[in-house]
Design the sequence.
């Protein structure tokens, strides 16, 4: 398979996945591991607040230093994380970007630039919409975020152990 065939195959896969997401946003979010702790009733409300965004290979999803006003969950694809021009991590489907939007009570800036590695489809939740979640929905989102942060912490701890060896 030559390079053009590989690109066409990748594009066809991305296009098919984008069509599926657009067809039923709730079902696509339901399939995403990030949203596992959230019961379907609450997820339906959250899905109504969510926009689906697509990013092309090499496109910046976030930029270091920008104000955090949106939170992303990767539904399809992967992205690299760069801090001070160094790649520090790779995020995959089910992982989140900009979780500080849920916790910060004041303006907060992004600590890293996140770049799409291939095509990426992400659920986007605006910080202003987070405030409209009711108490129960917010509790479920908090649980999903805590799970995601715990996984990030585990990954960071493994990376530190590797560096110390």
Sequence:
């Amino acid at each position: 398979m030559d390079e053009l065939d590989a690109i066409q195959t990748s594009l066809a896969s991305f296009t098919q996945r984008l069509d599926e997401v657009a067809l039923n946003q709730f079902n696509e979010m339901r399939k995403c591991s990030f949203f596992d702790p959230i019961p379907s009733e609450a997820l339906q409300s959250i899905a109504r607040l969510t926009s689906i965004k697509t990013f092309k290979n090499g496109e910046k999803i976030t930029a270091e230093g920008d104000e955090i006003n949106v939170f992303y969950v990767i539904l399809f694809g992967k992205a690299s994380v760069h801090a001070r021009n160094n790649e520090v991590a790779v995020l995959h489907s089910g992982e989140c970007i900009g979780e500080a939007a849920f916790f910060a009570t004041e303006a907060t800036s992004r600590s890293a630039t996140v770049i799409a590695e291939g095509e990426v489809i992400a659920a986007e939740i605006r910080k202003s919409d987070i405030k409209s979640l009711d108490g129960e929905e917010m509790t479920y989102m908090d649980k999903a975020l805590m799970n995601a942060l715990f996984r990030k912490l585990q990954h960071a701890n493994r990376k530190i152990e590797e560096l110390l060896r």
The chain has a mean pLDDT of 86. The longest helix spans residues 135-164.
